[in-house]
Design goal:
disordered N terminus, mainly alpha, about 180 residues
């Protein structure tokens, strides 16, 4: 997901982020995120109750289901960022509150997926052949949710970030650069 973000200019990144954030305020995107949260909660409960091969099959099914759902979600995000599909327009721009709510939801989803992975690790089921691949994919998806939340936060505070980089660039041009070992 990171490559399309870097390949577009600041104005396009901000416009795309606003379009994506507008989608997060929509009922469709909220339903997608909350469905993922619901699946993560069901998966967490299933992982905690793994005691037999039959339970492992149920966990495997839920893992494949949530991974497919999340992969579809991120594919849509990537398609919007790459310009392959148009981001649906919204009548109202996202508010600071709605952006923060979206960021919190993304972080909560990432934390839920990480918690499932950690519970599977504690239950020592990561080496189960039906669970190992999907649980690794789940952990990667958790990181993607954190990255998306961080990106939205950076876009929301874009001017502040640009000031920091401008200041650092000025310091570098004045020769005020220090070796990392001196810091």
């Amino acid at each position: 997901m990171s490559a399309p973000i870097r390949s577009v200019g600041r104005e396009k990144r901000v416009a795309t982020a606003i379009a994506l954030l507008s989608n997060f305020g929509s009922d469709v995107w909220n339903a997608e995120l909350y469905e993922s949260l619901s699946l993560a909660a069901r998966l967490s409960a299933a992982v905690k109750s793994v005691k037999s091969h039959a339970h492992s099959i149920k966990v495997s099914y839920l893992l494949w289901k949530i991974n497919g759902h999340v992969a579809k979600f991120f594919q849509e995000v990537d398609d919007v960022l790459a310009g392959r599909i148009a981001a649906p327009t919204s009548d109202e721009p996202p508010t600071a509150e709605s952006i923060q709510k979206s960021i919190r939801t993304l972080v909560e989803l990432g934390m839920s997926l990480n918690a499932v992975y950690e519970e599977a690790r504690r239950k020592r089921i990561l080496n189960n052949s039906m669970i190992a691949g999907p649980i690794a994919a789940l952990r990667a998806h958790a990181e993607q949710f954190f990255e998306l939340a961080e990106w939205f936060d950076l876009v929301q505070h874009g001017e502040e970030v640009e000031k920091i980089f401008a200041s650092a660039n000025e310091q570098r041009s004045r020769g005020e650069v220090h070796d990392l070992s001196q810091v």
